[in-house]
Structures are given as structure tokens and as C-alpha cells.
Amino acid sequence: MNKKYRRVIIAGNWKMNMVPSQVHGFVEDLRAAMPERSNGCSVVLCVPATHLGALSREKQRRIGIGAQNISQFDKGAHTGEVSADMIADLGAKYCIVGHSERRADNGDTDELVNAKLRILLDHGITPILCVGESLDQRDRGLTMEHIRYQIKAALYALTAEQVKRVVIAYEPIWAIGTGRTATDEQAQEVCLAIREQLRAEYGALISRKVCILYGGSMNAGNCAGLLAQPDIDGGLIGGASLKVEDFAAIIREGSRA
Ligand code: PEP
After folding, report:
1. Hey, which residues are catalytic here?
2. Among candidate residues 174, 107, 104, the one with its CA nearest the CA of residue 140
3. Residue nearest to atom 3 of ligand 1 (CA)
4. Which residues line ligand 1 (CB under 6 A)?
5. pTM of the predicted structure, to 2 decimals
6. Above pLDDT 90, what percent of the chain?
């Protein structure tokens, strides 16, 4: 519909895969397989913090640098944590926040997600905010209620100008890493609902500008239908982003969308 107001983003989420020495070869191969012209499609790789240095050393990479998490603290006595300052210093322009795996494995609550999101915005890093329902919630008809709540909590106390800089990824938990993708209609229905929520709370100008991605077993075979949906502005891709050919095929489709 109003896609002309937004760019397409194809973001890979490597999760806890690969080692830093594999970054160079992967980026070279991906660059060779990517379309010459991006047509307004931004490509991002969200890698583990240990890989950011290697990714930032790639010259003319045509690939945005993304992280997967930051600490909710600015600095100091927080052993094992990585701050927004640190990832920014390594060139990160994007960072995933609120991924369901972190919510489940690391206890990232809605409050924590809100705190991290604000820190990212303060550091000029684009947050990729993940929201999504469990299979049980979908089966019980609670999808929209849950998503609405997660978005409200994550964006709590943000100004409309800040919200405009957030990328939202709708990732149904039952579709992540399962090979079971939401249908085009299911994904569009939720992404449209997210946009309507943004319109109600922040106005039409903001809601038209926010990029909303779909994530959950997106691959070379199913991306065309998903990316053609009027309220889906790209993808957050896990498994398929680890394979150059698959990821490049999704990028090609994103460059057409
Ligand atoms: C993800 O981790 O954000 C994701 C969508 O994973 P996958 O594509 O493997 O389902």
C-alpha cells in the first residue's frame, strides 16, 4: 500500500553460529551473489558480538552491521556484558532486541526490552524489535492481544520521533527455526495490525514510515509471497542467512519488492 514511504530491509540473524574467521569468506561470497543494484533494499547481518570486528573490517561490504543484544547498563561492573557503546564502536548500526530466544533463555522481560531499546536509540543504533506469539496463544485467539501488549510495553515512554526509528519484526515463535512459516495472509494480518496500532498511538505519518519485517522460517522458496504483502517491508532471517545462496535469493527478492 504505502510501501513507497519505507525501505525494504533484509536482515540476517546468525544467532550463535559461525566463528569470526568465517566472516570474510561469507561476505565475499555474499557480495558476489547479491544483485548489483539494491533498489532501496538494505541488507544487514546481525552477528554475535565477537564477530562485529571482523564484519566492520570488510570494506565496501554493502552489508549493514548488526548485533543481537546489548546490556541494559551503560558501563561498569557487569561482567560478561557488552554495551551499546562497544557495539557502536565496532560499527554496529542495528541491533536486535526482544528476540523470543532471549526472552526465553535470558529472561529479557518487556521492561528490559524497553530499557535496551532506549539505550540503542540514544546511541544512534536502529533497534530491530522482535514481537511474536506462541502457538498456544495463537490457538487460543490471543495473538493480537499479545502483540499489542508487547509493542506497547517495548515502546513505553518513547516519543513519536523515536518510534519512527524503530524497526519491528513480527516473529511468531511457532515459526522460528521450525520450518513452519506463517502464511502470507497470517503474516500480513499481524503486520497490518501492528501498523494500525502505531497509527492509533503515534499518527499516520509515523506508522507509514516504520519498517515492519516478518521473521520465522523465511527462505528462498517462500519469501516472494511474504515480501509482496503491503505491510511487510522485509525479513529477519535466521537459518537461511547462514547459507550464501539462500540469503542472496531472499535479497534478490527484497530488491524487487
Ligand atoms: C530468527 O531467529 O529471527 C528467525 C526468524 O529464525 P529462522 O529464520 O531460522 O526461523
Report:
1. 99, 171
2. 174
3. 238
4. 13, 15, 171, 176-177, 215-218, 236-240
5. 0.97
6. 93
**pLDDT per residue as tens digits for the range 72-104:** 999 999 999 999 999 999 999 999 999 999 999
CA distance 164 to 47: 24
* Domain annotation for the chain: domains and CATH numbers: 8-256 (3.20.20.70)
How many residues appear in the chain?
257
Q: Ligand 1: which of 15, 130, 135, 174 to mutate, judged by most atoms within 8 Å of the beta carbon?
A: 15
In the block, residue with C-alpha cell 547462514: 242
More confident residue, 219 or 4: 219
